[in-house]
Design brief:
By secondary structure, the chain is an alpha/beta fold. Helix content is about 35%, strand content about 20%. Strands 12-13-11-14-15-10-16 form a seven-stranded parallel beta sheet, with helices on both faces.
């Protein structure tokens, strides 16, 4: 019921203002995160926006109109604007109003509103894929254009529920072990099992495509293996790096009954294809300059009769892979990610072509249950020396961030943090190689960048895990799919401008549960009153939405 003590102000332009100081802020934020997107997160008032895509993802994950409106009313200061209520009702109702079905090898769009179907049949985005109108409620569409049809319907504003079904694929026995080869008992966590169940849906056409969003360290790989256990078919797994390929293979061998001769690596180093093949986005999109074949490795998608394709870190999916994915919609598709945020705005293509969000679990919920480490985030604001302030002021837009990111004052603060956390397993993360070279020499610590060979990376990660050294300097190649369970301190010295997904992944490097419940600390060092501070505010938005609050410190507070 609306009351002045509530934290939400729902506005007619679909934005929702949230008072951070309210005692009811946390539960209100958790409800909003399920169907709205955080746009701004300054200290006192956060701004969310309700969008068609956020509502369609909410509907696909099982949220109803009553759930959404009930949550808004429970935490709102004032009555909800009538137009917002109507928009929520309308957009939720639009999801699945048109269904994509298969009959006798043909593909059809089916609805219950003749006027809507007539509108779709004549819409310029959908029209190229429509073969004929069978009756007022049925359109026959080009069978090989299933993904393109779904993209078109999202742009029309009526996302189709795809229940056309999937090919079974080449049969393959995949069984998850009760006891891993390592000798440790292996039991899926409750949310991992739930996520796999929701995705597969008992083999029904309502399942089989979609994304699962879980925090870094929550075991998304286990969800993938559970989905393979349910599908029992030949599987293609796509990952962001060769190191991730090797980690997937190691986990499959340890926790399933698959044998080495059933699993292959298809990367820049090896090109094997077996019933389970693990590849990288990079090799798939590689092409020789001037070659006639635009993406020769796309042939991998047809190299076997895959029944399941797993897209690891699906938020990193390169645009060319969307194109080939649009043409393989008859294969089951599972996207795994910590965040659906994409800085290129292609979230709608993930929704259309991989599938809508089917399952998510708030980061803080898993933290409370002990499945990921408790983490504290700090932003340390560091002044820019007078001699650099003038250079910064006189520089062009492209030069401002490098100057701010290279602030020498960051090294002084870094030294203080290293002293404070002496003995911890610590990562220093950045994007500028010259800066990382300097820091690695300063710390006498190993450095991993894109130039480091895969073999050397694996060796250094393993040495870090074993405690042979406790400090490691890494570039953005370590943002994704790296399992360093003992890392408990991360210091971000520079980032990829305002990338929210990168911030989430970097925090994720230290979220594996620690022995004895040890707390993790994430520091981001920013140059105050510069674009560095502006970018940091944007990078933090997704984590703020998940319930993390950044303690703001100034350089003198850390140094004293």
């Amino acid at each position: 019921m609306p009351t002045p003590d509530n934290p939400l102000i729902v506005q007619g332009d679909q934005t929702v203002l949230v008072e951070v100081a309210s005692e009811r802020y946390a539960p209100a934020r958790d409800i909003l995160a399920r169907f709205a997107e955080l746009e701004k997160s300054p200290e006192h008032i956060h701004t969310y926006r309700i969008t068609p895509l956020s509502l369609w993802n909410a509907a696909a994950s099982g949220l109803s109109v009553d759930d959404i409106l009930g949550g808004l009313r429970e935490y709102s200061k004032y009555d909800l604007p009538g137009n917002v209520v109507r928009d929520i009702q309308e957009y939720i109702a639009r999801y699945g109003r048109i269904k994509l079905v298969s009959r006798d090898g043909e593909l059809f769009l089916v609805g219950d509103d003749a006027a809507l179907m007539a509108e779709v049949a004549r819409h310029k985005r959908a029209q190229p894929f429509i073969r004929e109108q069978i009756d007022p409620y049925t359109l026959r569409v080009a069978p090989g254009r299933r993904g393109h049809v779904k993209q078109a319907l999202v742009s029309v504003g009526y996302p189709a529920e795809d229940i056309a079904g999937y090919v079974t694929g080449e049969a393959l026995s995949v069984r998850v072990r009760d006891v891993a080869l390592s000798g440790l008992p292996f039991v899926l966590r409750h949310y991992q099992a739930e996520a796999a169940d929701v995705f597969y849906a008992g083999g029904a056409s309502q399942g089989g495509s979609g994304t699962i969003t879980l925090p870094c360290g929550a075991g998304k790989t286990m969800v993938g293996m559970a989905a393979m256990d349910k599908a029992q078919c030949s599987t293609l797994i796509l990952t962001p790096s060769t190191v991730a390929v090797r980690q997937w293979i190691a986990e499959l061998l340890d926790k399933t009954e698959l044998q080495e001769d059933q699993i292959a690596e298809y990367s820049g180093l090896k090109k094997d294809i077996r019933p389970v093949t693990v590849s990288t986005y990079q090799v798939l999109t590689h092409r020789k300059r001037g070659a006639d074949d635009e993406f020769p490795h796309f042939a991998l998608f047809n190299a076997r009769d895959w029944g399941l394709i797993i897209y690891d870190e699906v938020h990193l999916l390169p645009a060319p892979v969307f194109r080939i994915t649009a043409e393989i919609q008859a294969r089951r598709r599972l996207g795994l990610t910590a965040t659906l945020v994409r800085e290129d705005g292609l979230e709608v293509d993930v929704f259309s072509l991989i599938g809508p969000k089917k399952y998510d679990m708030p980061w803080r919920d898993l933290e409370k249950q002990g499945w990921i480490a408790t983490a504290v985030c700090h932003e340390v604001r560091i002044a820019l020396a007078e001699e650099l302030r003038m250079a910064y002021a006189m520089s062009g837009p492209r030069e401002k961030y490098p100057i701010a990111a290279h602030n020498p004052g960051k090294l002084t603060v870094l030294d203080a943090l290293l002293k404070k956390h002496e003995g911890d397993h610590l990562l220093v993360i950045g994007m500028y190689l010259d800066q990382l070279d300097e820091i690695a020499a300063r710390l006498d610590a190993p450095l991993i960048t894109g130039k480091t060979s895969v073999r050397e990376r694996e060796k250094l990660y393993e040495q870090f895990r074993k405690g042979e050294f406790r400090r490691l300097v890494v570039s953005k190649v370590a943002n994704f799919s790296i399992d360093l369970p003992d890392a408990n301190i991360a210091i971000e010295i520079s980032g990829t401008f305002g990338s929210r997904q990168e911030e989430a992944q970097r925090l994720g490097r230290i979220l594996r549960p620690k022995s004895g419940g040890q707390m993790a600390h994430f520091y981001t060092l920013v140059t105050r009153d510069t674009v560095d501070q502006t970018f940091a505010a944007n990078r933090q938005r997704f984590l703020t939405e998940q319930g993390y609050q950044y303690e703001i410190l100034y350089d003198h507070e850390v140094l004293n």
